[in-house]
UniProtKB/TrEMBL annotation:
Membrane spanning stretches: none
Organism per entry: Blastomyces silverae
Record GO terms (molecular function): iron ion binding; oxidoreductase activity
Coiled-coil stretches noted in the UniProt entry, renumbered to this chain: none
Organism domain of life: Eukaryota
Subcellular location: Membrane
Sequence ranges assigned to domain Fatty acid hydroxylase in this UniProt record: 122-163
One GO biological process term: lipid biosynthetic process
This protein's name: Fatty acid hydroxylase domain-containing protein
InterPro entries reported in the protein's UniProt record: Fatty_acid_hydroxylase, Sterol_Desaturase_Related
Length: 164
């Protein structure tokens, strides 16, 4: 099944890369990455907590009283959804303003070499960590912390949606 999917992607990607504007491909990939890399795993973790509470509680390090309330979970979910929709809307607006022709991605019908893939992955990982660290430090500024960031630290027990 995996090889079927990979072979399908192998034949589809050149068509996608030449048929659609690069900005549209970037927006689509970004949305898919958010769904597959954040929303799906967070939802699965929350579903395990809700569907199998005895199993879930058995594996938690913090006591029951330190777990977030349903109100805190829904508030967090709403804040994360709002932030995610806002950032996605800004990305779509920028792409629309450039007629979906500008992108920060390199989009070609050919595949990168393994060396390019490893180098780009390492560069992206390093850049992501640097940007995350810088943004997180900035959010600890006294003028920003209480208004925007304090709620992130209000979760004393791990909660998947609070990760963003």
């Amino acid at each position: 099944m995996a090889s079927l999917s990979l072979s399908t992607l192998t034949t589809l990607w050149p068509q996608i890369a030449t048929s659609y504007p690069p900005g549209l491909i970037e927006v689509t990939i970004t949305i898919l990455a958010q769904i597959l890399g954040f929303w799906l795993p967070c939802t699965l973790y929350l579903a395990i907590d809700l569907a199998f509470p005895a199993f879930s509680n058995k594996h938690k390090l913090q006591s029951y009283r330190r777990q977030p309330t349903w109100a805190a979970i829904t508030h967090c979910f709403q804040r994360v959804l709002t932030a995610n929709l806002l950032s996605t809307s800004l990305q779509i607006a920028f792409a629309f303003a450039t007629n979906f022709q500008h992108t920060l991605f390199t989009i070609t019908p050919t595949y990168p070499t393994p060396r390019e893939l490893i180098a780009d992955f390492a560069y992206a990982l390093l850049l992501r960590e640097l940007l995350f660290y810088t943004a997180h430090r900035a959010l600890h500024h006294p003028k920003l912390y209480s208004r925007f960031h304090k709620q992130h630290h209000s979760f004393t027990a791990p909660m998947a949606f609070a990760a963003q």
